[in-house]
């Protein structure tokens, strides 16, 4: 090929690229926002893998880089049509349909790091429709692929008293017996704290508190808060807030519910309500937990003599959390007792 034709072809290719006629998929990695920066740092290229330890990628210039997972705020990619459909269903709170769609997306996906993301989404959907046993199994499949998963918030844990149903009890008992998996044991002990196996669950949590990886050890300690008698020690409550902030933001909601409970018992209803309200504001993933937090916040507002504000929260539960079950029924009862519809 002579130099004139080569130059012509190169010019044509550059022209097509600049006009958008030829495009290549790009992954974008957004880092945690630095305090001294107004805009987040972004890397563009191809993600090779993303685990709970590192994200590896090839930049547009061809450079191979590794980013600590703790510094990653979010990622964007060329998601498949199946994945976009599943995400849309989840955004519409159609979690049963979204679960099926995420599984379809998983089967169509070839990238390992995206497949793990889809497993996490499946676990979240199952939790939101009350299938914590199936959610736990999905989460264990996730950590089997990546023992240091960045999707810690996809792990189902119990944060309030309530005996597990038959299926969940069976699964929790099996998880508790998996001595090679601290994730499984943490989930099992969490749900069995309200069952006949309570003493075994406490012993497991105490062991995990001293032997599990840092974030799991911290969650085990926080589960043990559920077993302690009420305390009005102000210093302890401040210390617990600091402990919660050591967790990834997406995993803080459950412990914040317990902190709200402690503040309520310490006769600090306003602070308790604030803590409860952080959950639905900051966490749009765990819907049952968010509905519970709104209900508890409403009760604290009633105690403060603010019935109109309480009714607004009860109405939000009824309107936005139609699958809330017993929580929704209690919100409706409190609405009627307080005088009907919220202003």
From TrEMBL:
Coiled coil regions, renumbered to chain:
none
What domain of life?
Bacteria
Q: Which Gene3D superfamilies match?
A: Tetratricopeptide repeat domain
Q: Which InterPro entries match?
A: TPR-like_helical_dom_sf, TPR_rpt
Keywords in alphabetical order, please: Signal
**Pfam families of this UniProt entry?**
TPR_6 (PF13174)
Signal peptide interval: 1-25
Tell me what this protein is called: Tetratricopeptide repeat protein
Task: Say which species the protein is native to.
Answer: Blastopirellula marina
